[in-house]
Amino acid sequence: MKDWQNEILSTWEITIKEFEQLSKNIGELVETISEELVETVDFLTEQIDTYLPLEIEQFLNELFQPIVELEQVWRWENWENTEFEEYFSDFTEFTVNPKIEPSPELYPACMGCHQYHGRVYNGNILVCGMHPYGWEDENCPDVVT
User: Fold this and answer.
1) Under a CB-based contact definition with an 8 Å cutoff, are residues 136 and 108 in contact?
2) Are residues 59 and 107 in the same domain?
3) How many domains is the chain built from?
4) Of 71, 96, 121, which one is at a domain's C-terminal end?
5) d(Cα 26, Cα 20) in Å, to the nearest integer?
6) Whether 129 and 70 share a structural domain
7) Of 22, 46, 59, 68, which alpha carbon lies 20 to 30 A from 135's?
8) How many CB atoms are located within 10 Å of the residue 33 CB?
9) Could you read off the pLDDT of 10-49 as tens digits, one per residue?
10) Contact (Cβ atoms closer than 8 angstroms) between residue 110 and residue 135
11) How far apart are CA 58 and CA 95, in angstroms?
12) Are 107 and 74 contained in the same domain?
């Protein structure tokens, strides 16, 4: 009578050990997948941040290039249409999020800093994450070269 009880007990112990191993394997698999997912998302985010503004700017330049050429042709024909020039001047000089580089006159503390962003959004420049409006003098305490 004790044989079948011992057999059930040993089978139960084997089942528990196999379940523990399965749980451990699943945990490792989930951890590996989550690490790869984080790496993939970081890579895609970096690619989007790098290439999307360039692609948009290139698209807009291609879109407005015929207008610029048309305006130049009209100028060469000495056709003075100031209304045309006034209306389309905003479009011919349009860029998406232009980058403003720091200079001795403009944001001197930011020259050479890796944290400098310098992009314009809705007419407002975002200098960096630490000091969105820039630093007052030439010695920023958070500069990273």
Assistant:
1) no
2) no
3) 2
4) 96
5) 10
6) no
7) 46
8) 10
9) 999 999 999 999 999 999 999 999 999 999 999 999 988 8
10) yes
11) 9
12) no
